[in-house]
Specification:
Largest sheet: 4 strands, mixed
Distance between the termini: 72 Å
Number of helices: 11
Length: 220
């Protein structure tokens, strides 16, 4: 008849240490217990290593050559947003891939189209509002960059601010964002936000011009 673990521990060996005794260094049980403890201690390290291995593949699949800079949570949110654009709004995704080279976590949201590569800085407030909102803002600011670079291609030299950041440019970007949000099935309350936008929301101090003072006052 087979003996269970407790039978073995109470064998005729008496008080002789068993190879299954967890209190005996080098015993089979002690080795197993120590192994489990070691594995639990290294669980976090394993997750980090796994993320490092998967991250390049994820970028390749959902962001092409776009660099994504920020916390692990931020990167994951941006990857999900890009995947959503690629799936449900492929034309908008193509604009992002062509006119945005980097998406980075920052204190405020804004498109730096003149940087190399063109960089969309996104705040946590914007990124983590929702995946759909994150995707919509990426599309919005990619259109700002599109306006900048398409003008620059035809008119070498300095690009006038109104071409890509003025009221009319803002209206075009808002229209594009609204269309994208509809395609990716954003919730109604996100679509309703556009009812109060007329292209002048970026002029926060309402002095009739968009400048660095307005940028510093942003809460998004």
């Amino acid at each position: 008849m087979k003996k269970c673990y407790s039978d073995i521990m109470k064998s005729d060996l008496g008080n002789t240490p068993s190879r299954y005794d967890p209190n005996v260094p080098g015993s089979l049980k002690a080795w197993t217990v120590n192994k489990i403890i070691l594995m639990k201690r290294n669980k976090w390290a394993c997750r980090v290593l796994l993320n490092l291995l998967i991250w390049p593949l994820a970028c390749s699949a959902f962001g092409s050559d776009i660099e994504i800079e920020g916390s692990a949570r931020f990167k994951e949110q941006v990857i999900q947003a890009l995947a959503l654009l690629k799936k449900d709004a492929p034309e908008a995704y193509a604009v992002v891939i062509k006119f945005v080279g980097r998406i980075e976590q920052g204190d405020k949201s804004g498109m730096w189209a003149y940087k190399n590569p063109p960089t969309y800085e996104m705040s946590d407030h914007t990124a983590f509002h929702s995946v759909t909102w994150c995707a919509g803002t990426i599309a919005h600011d990619s259109f700002h960059s599109k306006l900048y670079h398409e003008y620059k291609e035809k008119h070498p030299g300095r690009v006038p601010a109104d071409i890509w950041t003025g009221v009319e440019a803002e209206k075009k970007c808002l229209k594009h964002q609204q269309e994208v949000l509809t395609k990716i099935k954003a919730p109604k309350h996100e679509l309703d936000i556009f009812l109060k936008f007329d292209g002048t929301h970026h002029d926060i101090n309402k002095d009739g011009k968009y400048d660095w003072e307005d940028y510093r006052k942003r809460d998004w």
